[in-house]
Structure formats: structure tokens, C-alpha cells
Amino acid sequence: MAATIPFWQRKRLTEMTPKEWESLCDGCGKCCLTKLEDEDTGEVWYTDLACQYMDGDSCQCTVYGERQHKEPDCIVLSPENLQDFHWLPSTCAYRLLSEGRPLPDWHPLITGDPSSVHEAQISMRQRTVPNSQVAEDDWEEHIIHWVI
């Protein structure tokens, strides 16, 4: 009986295998966006600037296996550090499950289709500019308010 219940409904995040954990990622690309934080309030704003290694069409990291080597600021989510990432978008499966909420209907684990996140217009597909192409002093001009 337990095998018919999807793993994300029957396991805690800390009980998941690495493969299960990785499969929670919907491929939206929002983690790869440059975020700006107000040092006084802790408020976080998303920009439309993406890591230079994010493919703008697939929203996938082009150097995933070596991302921390190539981009030292890249953050790796884990069950142990998930609570540190209050900035995760409200659509993020890691955040949803940690808050005891279900995955959305468009999530690839529900649909069986990795492109469902793009079809639902949740992803950053073709909405980003590589942050390496914009001077850091100009990043505030790229703040977006439509990321959920």
C-alpha cells in the first residue's frame, strides 16, 4: 500500500534519497536568479538576472555537477539547510513540502512531464538576462515583482 503513495507524500524531506530530493526540483530556474537583500530589513527582491550558467530556455544549470566550483556563490539546498532559505518562491516544492503543503498540479512529479512547469508559465524560461552582462551597480534596475 505505501508504494502506491508517492514518496513526497509518505516521506519527510530528511528521509528522501538523493535522487528523490533532486526530483523535487520543478526546473523553474528561480533559484538561479540574482536576489537582492535589504541588509536592514532582510527583505529579498528577485531580479530577472540569472546566473551565467543557467540555460535561459531549459532553466537548467549547464554546469550542475560542478556548479559550486565554477560559481562559489551557488547555494545547494539540502534538508539540513532548507530552513535558512526563506527567500524560496512560494511555488518551490522544497518550500511547499517543508510547510506541509501539497505539490501544485503543474509540478513535473504530478504531470510526469518536465515541460509542465514551462507550460504553466511558472518558470523563468526566456525571461532572464545573464547577470554577467549587467554591471552590479545596475542590478536594482532589474528587480521584478511578478515572481511568486
TrEMBL record:
InterPro entries: Puta_zinc/iron-chelating_dom, UCP006173. It comes from the Bacteria. Pfam families: CxxCxxCC (PF03692). PANTHER family: UPF0260 PROTEIN YCGN. Belongs to the UPF0260 family. This is UPF0260 protein C8D92_102331. It comes from Tamilnaduibacter salinus.
